[in-house]
Specification:
The complex is a heterodimer. By secondary structure, chain A is of the alpha+beta class. Helix content of chain A is 31%, strand content 29%. In chain B, helix 1 (26-38) packs parallel to helix 2 (56-71). Classes of the chains: A alpha+beta, B alpha/beta.
Chain lengths: 141, 113
């Protein structure tokens, strides 16, 4: 993977059984990076996790249940820049109001966005046309 | 979810025989652990030797089990974490909450103390 831009544009049913498929695509991309100087296996895990968390988020926030509903995920790799966009058509939420987990209190939930923020350089959630986009960027050096 | 259940010296060992513990399958683990404590089990060990990937839902299911243990005066411990799985416990500070052992044998010995 040298030089050229790669864009993977995937649509899968909004079901958790496809989490593994999406996560593995992230792992494969990490392992194929020729110039990445860090540990590729760690990066592979991190991309798997970020894609898994983002897709679960899209499933949770998608609009009214329809049997054939899809989640769209676009992964773009341009030189050292990785961008992952995950689309949902739900009501959306304000990502800036989600607090980090309270480490002194044991909650079952509320670690997903924290993990994404910890592992990516920037995370934004915004509305575009009728869809919400969770956009996550990371510089791969 | 593929879970193998074995009782060794008053400890119910649950071997998670899955590559991933995530939002797709973790609620099943949560339910099984909850039932064990409700049925009177005091000591539960969750062995994660085969788990190479865990997400926030997987972590959440284990936290739920840990809280269940406390509310039933029992205990839940973990064993055989792969290094990348362990790093997720560290990132979320959960390594300070759980007692984590390198092997099932060491964990079972600890339950006897």
């Amino acid at each position: 993977m040298a030089g050229n831009t790669i864009e993977v544009d995937i649509k899968v049913p909004n079901k958790t059984r496809y989490l593994s498929l999406i996560g593995k695509i992230g792992e494969d991309i990490a392992r194929e990076l020729e110039k990445y100087s860090g540990d590729k296996e760690t990066l592979a895990y991190h991309l798997n996790l970020v894609l898994t968390e983002a897709m679960v988020n899209a499933i949770k926030h998608s609009g009214p249940k329809e049997p054939e509903k899809l989640v769209r995920i676009v992964i773009t790799l341009n030189a050292d820049n990785l961008t992952i966009r995950v689309y949902d058509d739900g009501q959306g939420f304000d990502i800036n109001t989600i607090p980090p987990p309270n480490f002194d209190e044991l909650e079952d939930r509320g670690r997903g966005i924290f993990l994404i923020r910890s592992l990516m350089d920037s995370v934004h959630y915004h509305k575009e046309c009728q869809e919400n986009i969770l956009e996550m960027r990371k510089k791969l050096v | 979810m593929n879970l193998v259940n074995e009782t060794r010296k008053d400890v119910v060992v649950l071997y998670v025989k899955e590559e991933r513990l995530d939002a797709h399958n973790s609620s099943e683990l949560k339910t099984v652990v909850q039932k064990l404590f409700e049925d009177g089990t005091k000591n539960v060990l969750v062995d994660l030797k085969d788990v190479r990937f865990i997400d926030s839902s997987g972590l959440g299911a284990l936290v739920s089990g840990f809280k269940n243990a406390i509310s039933h005066q029992g205990s839940l411990k973990l064993s055989s974490l792969q290094s990348q799985v362990k790093s997720m416990f560290e990132l979320t500070r959960l390594h300070r909450v759980f007692e984590i052992f390198p092997s099932t044998v060491e964990a079972i010995e600890n339950f006897q103390q």
